Amino acid sequence: MLVCVIDGRGGGLGSRLVAGLQSELGPAHPIVALGTNRAAAAAMKRAGATQVGVGACAMADTLPTVDVIVTSLNLVLPGSMLGEVTPEIVHAILGARATKVLLPLNRARVEIVGARAYSLEALITQSLSRVRSLVNSVQPA
Predict the structure, then answer these.
(1) What phi and psi, each to the nearest 5 degrees, are found at residue 83?
(2) Largest Cα span, the chain
(3) Residue 39 predicted with pLDDT over 90
(4) CA–CA–CA angle 119, 126, 50 (5° rounding)
């Protein structure tokens, strides 16, 4: 199962997710990292991502091939992250057949009714657990 982490700005969240996923899933499951910019991609590469890409074109090419996408809710809101998230990026993410695990961070002033206000650490832990259960639910061929 191919897992993809997407992040922007400095890649802080993405690098923590990549490192956590490596620990949770082990080397049998490669982690693809896609950044909205080079800084985010480099941070996720340093965290141990197997493959790295940058920008909307890399996302459009790569996302159809992944099984799980892990990212912040901000990555499906055009114009968020100081304008780094383009409509093309949103389309690539939402159009992918992959299961999307979105961390409901409230930096874009979007509230999700029914979602509790967890700390970033708790959201990362919950996301890692969810991806692990998705990966474990797939039976080997």
Answers:
(1) 90, 0
(2) 43
(3) yes
(4) 110
